[in-house]
């Protein structure tokens, strides 16, 4: 009697031998990278990250590929920074604010009003200070490949316009995870509580906090404007962001592939900066139509002067910040 093989069995036998053949003949292991992202689809960071991983795949003939997980579904930014340090995620786009909690040198960019404007921040980050911060991050397992933009952050709240620091008295603001920001809000007379980004909408809505602070595109995409309509243009922070790869994933690449992936990251940063500029205008126009109340603050000196103790404490806690502050101030 001829023994009949079920097609299912033949199929799985073929699959197994196929997989064996692939693993024997593949020239190099293929890296399938997991990418962390806090933002939603369509946000400039998201679009640029997707373009990065696609270009990296092309440039390495598929030896690197990956997927971007949006909306912080892999965990909060605070957790993701730690996950990257142990190789639990392979690439991510982080704001340098929360990175300062793990890499103290990076706190220099979180000193309020340290940059004159976005162009100054670009000159600093594209020069020796940017390189120094990359090296400090590398020592902590985070390989920064390119700097992305996130504009300037201003306060918004559900109660009233902020024209002077006195207006912040008695109000509670959410800040990103970094003690320095708690000190910043307290020096201005308010109260602050660090909180994950995903929790802010509900906290504003229910009055757990009165306000938060962010740039135009995030104020828009997070829908915080719906529950905190007073946007007061303090522009106290201009924070760079980083497209990074975990040191563990990076070490598995050949030098040629590292070069190709770095190039894909830098091209994506150029793309992101263009998308960013467009998004700022789009969000501002949309939110004005939606009825938010903007407060322009021509003279920011009261806010700036109040930052002296914040700088003093930051330098006392971490003396390596002093020369970095100098270098940023000397960057024309
Ligand atoms: C956005 C940043 C994002 C932060 C968020 C926040 O791009 O990385 O998570 O602010 O405030 O502007 O948490």
From TrEMBL:
GO molecular function terms noted in the UniProt entry: carbohydrate binding
Keywords: Receptor, Signal
GO CC aspect terms: outer membrane-bounded periplasmic space
Alphabetized Pfam families for the sequence: DctP
Region forming the signal peptide: 1-31
UniProt-listed InterPro entries: DctP_fam (IPR018389), TRAP_DctP (IPR004682), TRAP_DctP_sf (IPR038404)
GO biological process per UniProt: transmembrane transport
Superkingdom of the source species: Bacteria
PANTHER family with a match to the protein in the record: DICARBOXYLATE-BINDING PERIPLASMIC PROTEIN, PTHR33376
Protein name from the UniProt record: Tripartite ATP-independent transporter DctP family solute receptor
Organism annotation: Marinomonas alcarazii
Lineage: Bacteria, Pseudomonadati, Pseudomonadota, Gammaproteobacteria, Oceanospirillales
């Amino acid at each position: 009697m001829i023994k009949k093989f079920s097609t299912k069995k033949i199929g799985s036998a073929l699959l197994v031998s196929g997989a064996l053949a692939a693993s024997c003949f593949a020239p190099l292991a293929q890296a399938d990278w997991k990418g962390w992202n806090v933002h939603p689809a369509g946000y400039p960071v998201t679009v640029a990250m997707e373009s990065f991983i696609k270009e990296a795949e092309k440039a390495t003939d598929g030896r690197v590929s990956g997927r971007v997980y949006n909306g912080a579904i892999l965990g909060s930014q605070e957790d993701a920074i730690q996950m990257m340090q142990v190789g639990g995620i392979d690439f991510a786009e982080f704001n340098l604010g929360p990175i300062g909690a793990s890499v103290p040198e990076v706190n220099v960019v979180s000193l309020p009003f340290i940059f004159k404007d976005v162009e100054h921040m670009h000159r600093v980050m594209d020069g020796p200070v940017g390189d120094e911060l990359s090296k400090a991050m590398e020592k902590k397992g985070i390989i920064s490949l390119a700097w992305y933009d996130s504009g300037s952050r201003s306060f918004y709240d559900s109660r009233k316009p902020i024209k002077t620091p006195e207006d912040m008295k008695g109000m509670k603001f959410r800040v990103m995870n970094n003690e320095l920001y708690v000190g910043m809000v307290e020096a201005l007379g308010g109260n602050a509580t660090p909180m994950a980004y995903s929790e802010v909408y509900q906290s504003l809505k229910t009055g757990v906090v009165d306000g938060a602070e962010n740039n135009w595109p995030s104020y828009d995409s997070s829908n915080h404007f719906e529950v905190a309509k007073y946007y007061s243009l303090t522009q106290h922070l201009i924070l760079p962001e980083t497209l990074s790869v975990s040191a563990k994933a990076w070490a598995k690449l050949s030098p040629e592939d590292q070069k190709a992936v770095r190039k894909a990251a830098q091209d994506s940063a150029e793309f992101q900066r263009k998308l960013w500029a467009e998004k700022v205008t789009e969000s501002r126009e949309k939110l004005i139509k939606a009825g938010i109340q903007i407060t322009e603050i021509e003279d920011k000196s009261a806010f700036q002067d109040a930052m002296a103790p914040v700088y003093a404490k930051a330098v006392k806690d971490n003396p390596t910040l002093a020369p970095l502050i100098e270098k940023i101030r000397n960057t024309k």
